[in-house]
Design brief:
Elements lengths: L3 E5 L9 H6 L3 E5 L2 H10 L4 E5 L17 H10 L4 E6 L4 H4 L10 E4 L4 H9 L1
Parallel strand pairs: 1-2, 1-3, 3-4, 4-5
Helix pairs in contact: 2-3
Length: about 120
């Protein structure tokens, strides 16, 4: 059975890594919102998720949530706990990513810019 990967592309900073996934034989599903991703995750588990990290800075995610990924990680605990999450992050927000490991251990954190070679090395192991 083919490896499956969900790309959640919420900004222009998210690199197009589809070529690398294809070369590795990974079946990619690409969505452009967390809302769509959450609905999809309830129906279908994935082997990997590649998503961007955006720290809350006291705005939309104020209070309990750390970032845009919290709700998804809590959903994975219920619907797909074996999914390995790869987080893409800008170096200015890197310091906040570790807090997500308290919700669900992350498979990897990759600093921008993320190259096809870097993702191939990570997923090819």
């Amino acid at each position: 059975m083919a490896t499956t990967l969900l790309s959640i592309v919420e900004s222009a900073a998210h690199p197009n890594l589809s070529g690398a996934y294809q070369r590795l034989g990974i079946v990619e599903t690409k969505l452009n919102s967390m809302r769509k991703a959450l609905a999809t995750l309830k129906k279908q588990p994935f082997d990997f998720i590649v998503a961007e990290f955006f720290y809350g800075y006291g705005s939309n995610y104020a209070g309990v949530n750390i970032s845009n990924l919290d709700v998804m990680l809590y959903s994975l605990q219920k619907y797909s706990p074996e999914t390995r999450v790869i987080v893409l992050v800008d170096k200015t927000e890197y310091q906040y990513v570790d807090k997500l490991n308290d919700i669900l251990p992350l498979h990897a954190v990759m600093l921008y810019p993320v190259s096809e070679q870097a993702i191939t090395q990570l997923l090819g192991d």
